[in-house]
Amino acid sequence: MHALSRATALSLLLLAGLCAAPARAQDRCAGKLGTSRTLAVDASGGLHVGTKHFPDTLALEDGEVVLTFDDGPFPATTPKVLKALADECVKATFFVIGRNAAAHPALLKRELAEGHTVGHHSMTHPMTLADIPYDKAVADIEQGLRADEKAAYGTVAARPRVPFFRFPGFGSSPELLAYLDRRGIAVFGADLWASDWDKQTPEHQLALVMERLDHARKGIILFHDTRAQTVAMLPAFLQKLKEGGYRVVHVAPATAVAAAPAQP
């Protein structure tokens, strides 16, 4: 009887802990920018989004932004980006280069563990895939998908678990777009960016991206988690989003959202 009572008590304690976990997360994120919602993206028939490159973008409301980071993971900078996002309870999407994912799998796993989405950005980041022979471009895309899958999950699925791809330098071609459509992989462009491939101070970069965002009012924003100036700017940028009433939307594959447990 004593053993049964003890087991019951332990079960009640475990149940109490599980029920308290969402509350603890909410307490930790109180007063933070946070992530307003998750947008399920169905890529099964192919999808091209980002008005810098395509006619359409994601179904975002005024004041909603999607944060994306290219070219990582990179040990000198990616952990600092992850910390800045965690400090404000913000979720983002990382479009990773296959060779970097293979070299730094622990960072890729950390991105996933912290609730971010990991998409794909080719194996070697040629500039651009549209400027090399089609068969070599497809091979670079597929090698990147496999390297990312192996580093993140330990195995390679026939279709990537996150079917999101961004072309390096946005260098697509009709043939490569058609190929990804057949593979059921969504292609992400961007609606605005901070031009952080150009050397600039964090202060200038912040002013530039906020000017563009205040004009556009919503959209997919492109950064690079390999750029020290972006790392230095990011906390102030997230604060500006909060002050300006902007809301962060997290994108995830529709299949993953459907499979996620319901939140209390």
Which SSEs are present, and which pair or pack?
Elements: H1 2-29, E1 37-41, E2 47-49, E3 64-70, H2 78-87, E4 93-96, H3 98-103, H4 105-113, E5 117-120, H5 134-153, E6 164-165, H6 174-182, E7 186-188, E8 192-193, H7 202-216, E9 219-224, H8 228-243, E10 247-253, H9 254-259
Parallel strand pairs: 1-10, 2-7, 3-4, 3-9, 3-10, 4-5, 6-7, 8-9
What report would you give on this structure?
This protein has 264 residues and is an alpha/beta fold. Helix content is 45%, strand content 16%. Strand 6, helix 6 (174-182) and strand 7 (186-188) form a beta-alpha-beta unit. Helix 2 packs parallel to helix 8, helix 4 packs across helix 5 and helix 7 (202-216) crosses helix 8 (228-243).
* Whole-number mean pLDDT: 90
Distance between the termini: 34 Å
Strand tally, please?
Answer: 10
Helix content: 40-55%
Q: What is the string of helix and strand elements?
A: HEEEHEHHEHEHEEHEHEH
> What structural class do you assign from the helix and strand content?
alpha/beta
The major sheet is characterized as: 7 strands, parallel
Radius of gyration: 20 Å
Oligomer: single chain
Proportion of beta-strand residues = 15-25%
Please count the helical segments. Answer: 9
The backbone outline, from C-alpha atoms, is globular
- Poorly predicted residue ranges: 9-18
